[in-house]
Amino acid sequence: MLAEFGHFALLLIVVTGFGQAVLCSPLWLRSSIRSSLLGPATVLAGGSPGPFSDGPGNMSVRLPTQDLPRQTSPYLILPLGILVLAIIAEAGLLHAFIVSDFSLPIVADVSHSSTPLLFRIGAAFTPDGGAMVLWLLAVSLVNVVLAIQLFTPEKSSYAQDDDGSLYHNALSVLGLLIAVLGLATLIDADPFLRMAVAPLDGRGMNPQNQDVLRVLREPFLYLGLAGLAVIYALTISGLLDKKFDRRIAETMRFWTIMSWVSLGTAIAINAYRSYSQQAWGNWWYWDTAENSLLLPWLLTTALVHCRAVLEKTETLKGWTAFLGLSALAVGWFGVYLTRSDLFGPLTETLMKSGDSMTLLIGFCVVFAGSYYLFWQRSDNLGEPRPFEPISRESSMFLNSVILALIAAVVLIGTIYPLVLRWLGGENITVGGPFYVEVLVPMTVPLLLLMGFAPTLRWRQDEVWLIGRRMKLAAILSLIIFLFVSIRFIDLSPAPLIGIGLAGWILTASLSDLWARLWRQPDHGESKYRNLQLLGPRYLSMTLAHIGLAVMLAGGAASSIWEEQIVVSARAGQSIQAGPYNLQYEGVSLLAGENYATRQAKFILYRHALPVTELYPEIRYYPIRGVETREAGIWHGRDGDLHVSVGDRADDGGRVVSVRFLPMMTWVWAGMILMLTGGAISIVTRIFLRFQKNGVSAS
C-alpha cells in the first residue's frame, strides 16, 4: 500500500512543481488574479521603470516591504509541501526494499530476500527509478532551504530588493526543474509499477554494489547535483532580471561550496572504492560513471573561484553565469549517460532499465532555453571595470578557464566511443593513457597559478612585488624538485613533475599564511587574533590548497616507489614487500550472509614484530552466480599494503598478489584536507548567519 502512496506522491510532486513554477513566475506576479488573492501591489515611486515595465514612465510591480512575511507565506508552503511528498515517495520505495516487495519490478531486479538489510536499503538508490527519486528528494530539500534563505528579510540581501522578482524567479525555475525530473521519473523508470504476478524471490543485488561506500556515495552525489540546481536557478533568475551582480554572488556562496564538498565527497568515496575493490590498487579508471562525477566537480571548482571574483569586484559576470549553467548541464548529462544503455562496459545496475529518453528530452529543452537566454542577455554581462593582466582576478579567471578545458577534454574522451559507434566504427574505450597524455600539459600551468593566486592583489599588482613575496616558496619547491629528479633520474618525468608542483603549492600556501600571521603588525597583538582576522574563507582556501598538494605528492610518490609481487604461496611461507613481511597461514571455507567465501589469513610483520592480520577473500554469490575478490588492505605510516588471493597454481600453491604503495595514505589525507576546508567554510557560514557579532565571513 505504501508503494501506491509513493506513486501518488510522485504525481503530486509534478503538479506541485509546475504550480511553484507558475506561482513564482513573472507572469503570475503581474496578473490580476494574484493581486486579488495576495493583496494590492505597490508602484515604484515616480513611475520609474522596473524589470516588468515597458519603458520609462510605466509602472512596475513590487511587494510591499512591510507585508513581506504575509506575502511570502504561500511561497514557503509550496516548497514544504513538495519536500513532504518527496519524503513520502522515498519512504514508500525504501519500505518496498526493506520488506522485499517483489511485486515491484525494481525490487525484484536488484534485491533478494537473503540480501543484508543495509544493502537492501542501498539497492533503493542504485536503479534508474530509485536514483531519480533520491535526486528529487535532494532537490526538494534544497528548494526548502533556498525559500527560507531568500524569504528571511533579516538574513537575505534580497530582502531590500525593489521588486522581489529575483527570488521569485529562482523558486520558479527550481519548481520547473522539480516538475521535469518528476516527469522523467514517472515516464522513464516508474519505481512503483507493479507486476501482475510477483516472483517468489528477486534476482539479487550486483555483488560489486554490496559495499557500504556505494550506499554512502549516492546521497552525496545527488545532494551535490541538487546544489547545482539552486545555482542554475539563481543564474537564470539573474539573467531574467538583468541583475547578475554581487548580490547573486553572495547568495550563491553557500551553494557553490556545498555542491563542491558534496561532489568531492562522492568522488573521494568512488576513488577509494576503485582502490580497494579487487585489490586493483588504482584509484581512478576514467570510465563513464567516474567521469560523470568528475565533470560537474571541475566546473564547480571553476565556479567557486569566479563567484568570489564577482562578489569582490563585480567582474567576470558572463563567465560566472556560463559556469552556473554548465555545471548542472554536465551533471545532468552525466546522469543520463550512466543511466542509459549506450555504453557496453557499464555495470549491470547502471544499465538496468530504459533508455532515459524523457531525461534526455528534458535536458535538451531546459538547457537549450537556458543558453538562448544567456546569449540574449550577453550584452548586459559586460565588465564595468576591467582588471589588469597581472592581478588576482586574472589568475583566477585563467585557472577557471583551464579547469573548463580539462572538463571539455574529459567530456570528449567520455563520449568519443559513442560518436565513433554512431559513425559505424568499432567499439573502443578511452582509458588512462589518453587522459594522462592530454591533461598533464594543461594541469601544470593550473598548478603553477594556484601557488600565485592567493598572494596577488586585486585589480593590479607589480611583478617585482610578486617575486619578493614568492621567492621563499620558489626556492624551496625548486630544491624539492631537483632532489627528487636527481635521486630518480631514470624514471618517467610525469611523477617527478607532480612532486615538484606539490612542493610548489605547499610552500606557496604555507609561506603566504606565514606572511599574513607574522608580518602584519597591524593585525593585532596576538597571532591567535591574526588567525581570526584572516577569515574562514581564506583559511578554508589555504587548507584546500594544502590538501591538493598532499594528495598530488602522495599519488606521484606511490607511482614511483610502487612494488608488486605475485607468487605461488604455501602455508607458512613468507613474502617480503617493502618494510613489511607477510606470513601466509592458509585458506578457510566460511559462510557469509548471502555468499560463501574462501578466506585467506596473513600475519603482517614489520621489523620482525607482528602488526596485524589481513583476511583477503574470494567470495561466491550463488544468487547471481558471480565470484568476487576482496582485498586485505593495511594503511601504515610507510604506505599501503594490498593483499589478494587467487586460485591454486599449477604447483599446488595459492596465487598471492601483493602490492606495496608508499605514501598512498597521503592521497586519502589530502582528499580529507580538501573537503575539510570546504566544510569549514560551510559551517562557518551557517554559524555566522545566526550570530550578529564575531569574525567577518570574508
Automatic annotation (TrEMBL):
One of its GO terms (molecular function) is heme binding. Residues 363-685 form the Cytochrome c-type biogenesis protein CcmF C-terminal domain. Keywords: Cytochrome c-type biogenesis, Membrane, Transmembrane, Transmembrane helix. The keyword Hydrolase does not apply. InterPro entries: CcmF_C (IPR032523), Cyt_c_assembly (IPR002541), Cyt_c_biogenesis (IPR003567). Residues 157-340 form the Cytochrome c assembly protein domain. This is Cytochrome C biogenesis protein CycK.
